[in-house]
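Annex B.
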Amino acid sequence: MKIICEGKVKIIIATDDPYVIIQRFKDDVTAFNKQKHDIVQGKGIICNHISAFIMEKLEEKGINTHFIRLKGEREQLVKKLEMIPLEVVVRNIAAGSFCKRIGLLKRGEKLRYPIIEFTYKNATDPLVSESEILYFNWLSSTQEIEEIKSIALKINKLLIDLFLSVGTNLVDLKLEFGRLNNNLILGDEISPDTWRLWTTDSNKILDKDTYRLDLGDLKSAYLEVASKLGIKID
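Phosphoribosylaminoimidazole-succinocarboxamide synthase: predicted structure tokens.
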């Protein structure tokens, strides 16, 4: 199998079908632009299963995703997209860099409505404006920007409701999109690596901040998310 590319936490592999690729989840965990880096055995397996579960739930609600099916414990078959080099960040509760950058909100303060931010995918993931997005043609028009924001907000609402049903608050999440036949399609993954999730009763952290802030065992936190969602990890 030919490796198309390898990132910090995933490997993309070609298949015999030019329209389908394999997404393999690694056990690497990184923070602070890879200044902190470790291997957590089994982490890739957990993220693979959680992301597959979330993608299937979103498909059921009418969100077009790249997910096709699980291929193994740490691999899934996905549609090959022309990826857009942006991360779409949706924030519901003030946390992380958002608090430091703005300086007007305390950590844990619930936002009156979701705030959407865009970052450019490179080594430092800088924030970019909608004008810059259009200038560099990452999205083709203001209409496409509004479309991607609308999809992101719909995903956010669906996941807020899903997580509330299992006693957790979706603090924020990062989404990536690509194009297929001129349609915007949700790509990459949705897992504890790409969201902040706190329990409703005690604000226990069930995401990568467990590792980033040295708050406990990352694998246990990720397995707790899987358990809450009813996902069985062998």
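Helices lie at 43-60, 97-102, 130-135, 142-164, 209-212, 218-228. The chain has two domains: 3-79, 82-217. Further annotation is deferred to the next reporting cycle.
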